[in-house]
Amino acid sequence: MVRDGLYYGVSLLVVAVIVYFGTHWISLTAIPFLLAVFFLIFFRDPEREIPAGPGLIVSPGDGKVEEAEWIETTAGARFRVSIFLSVFDVHVNRVPISGKVTLMEYREGQFLNAMSPESAILNEQTLIVIEDGQNSVSFKQIAGLLARRIICDVKTGDVVQRGQRMGMIKFGSRVDVLMPADVELRVKPGDRVQGGKSILGVLPGYGENKSSYGRS
Length: 216
Known about the structure:
This protein is α+β, with helices and mostly antiparallel strands. It folds into 2 domains: 3-42; 56-202, Glucose Permease (Domain IIA), CATH 2.70.70.10. Helices cover 19% and strands 36% of the residues.
């Protein structure tokens, strides 16, 4: 459980008790009680079994893969996987690969619907770049229509491990993962993934060096 969940959940449960003993109205008491349950569920932080093996890229968040496509960036061709998190998904984010954080950049922005393609450019976000000595993987925490706070607990120069917790986005969001263009892909649009557990792909030099939609 993320600490914020305890703050919100316990506080609202106290409010529910006060309302009940002050009014004895079940319907009125149900409002803070149901909100408390929502916050306790939303801020859950389950343990995950992190896959072992060289070159694996794991999902930084829970949600549904909406896009998996090659794109052109200033650094050349990359493969982007976009994962959308609803308010019902776990919102704790995890590191996709082991390596060194070479860039952590926060960008102010708007709060467009995370389903919109423009959100990847215009919305509030953090960009994290990790290098393992051979390859570079970057990912973005992107705020959505309801998400109003991005938490990132890593900074430039940190050495991180695949699957470790690194922050969260509150109340609906999106995470984009940019991988080498010749990554061996293991997911396709429509797949459900879990942060730190689901394998998005295999880095060049470790797998078969080809995209492979839907492999497990």
